[in-house]
Amino acid sequence: MAETISNKKKTKKEPDQEMSFWEHLEELRWHIVRALVAIIILAIVAFLNRNILFNDIILAPKESTFITNQLLCKLSEFLGVTSLCLDNLTLNIISIKMSGQFTMHLYVSIFAGIIVAFPYLIFELWLFIKPALMPKERKHSRGAVVVCSLLFLLGVAFSYFLIVPLTVHFLGTYQVSEFVKNNISLNSYISTVVSVTFAVGLVFELPVLVYFLTRVGLITPDYLKRNRKYMIVILLLLSAIITPPDIFSQILVVIPLMLLYELSIVVAKRVDRKREKEELAG
To answer: What pLDDT does 153 receive?
Structure first.
């Protein structure tokens, strides 16, 4: 009996034993499968709640009753800047393909599943790389899942409640001539809303990206400081494109993004100091 138990122990793989390439691939496959299952389940939930998904979320930013549009109108009255009020938007959204609405329903449901499941996707990624980390690194990386998730969701919220209404209002009312009327296709509207929301969510992961790049020595705090002026110009140009032509709208978009860049510099400083201490200690 004792010999049988001993043999079983020998056949078990030790936790710290190095895995082969195919074992890593198999492990990655199961992480991907679990992540896809989570996305599919949440996408089905979103698909079944069509009215909430479209009427209350996707199409809401184009309405004057949207919370951001109401707040901007109040701010516009306070500042005396009429262009900041987004109450004159009347978008006529049309579907020009037989399967257009059904296709967009599937498209939006999948992206809704990805956005809601994003924290779990980060968690699965962390589970995959955790065995390769040192015990000290595992301890400090536990909070990375929470930080990445919060930054992404914060970016999605910032984009949806501020950048999307400004973008929809500007592009939806822009005319090269009074003789040309805007009839926005459903595909164009949804692609704009989804891509802008998702892209800004990823942009908000900048501090995490800076953390890892600084950790491996690819960038330094001084590099980020030297390029601050270029970043300001890029953000100003971006805000000028997606907002109405007034300085207040641009400031509303630029300030949070610049704060994000400054946060990245702070993160880079802390990581750089810690790395230097570790090099001196080693």
So the answer is: 93
pLDDT band at 244 (very low <50, low <70, confident <90, very high): low
Sign, CA torsion 36/57/197/180: positive
Distance between CA atoms of residues 92 and 263, nearest Å? 40
- Asked if 103 contacts 97 with a C-beta cutoff of 8 angstroms, the reply is yes
CB-based burial label for 57 (10 Å; 0-12, 13-18, 19+) = middle
**What is the dihedral sign for C-alpha 229, 235, 238, 242?**
negative
Do the beta carbons of residue 258 and residue 158 sit within 8 Å?
Answer: no
How far, in Å, CA of 266 to CA of 210, rounded?
Answer: 10
Give me Rg for the CA atoms of the chain. 24
- pTM of the predicted protein model: 0.79
Q: What are phi and psi of 184, to 5 degrees?
A: -85, 130
Q: Which residue, 203, 200, 187, is CA-closest to 161?
A: 200
Place of tokens 């164009």: 188
Residue 12 is given by DSSP the state S
The residue with tokens 């004792």 is 2
CA 236 – CA 191 distance, rounded (Å): 23
| Residues 43, 92, 188: CA angle, nearest 5 degrees | 45
Q: Compute the distance between CA of residue 264 and CA of residue 208 in angstroms, rounded to an integer.
A: 8
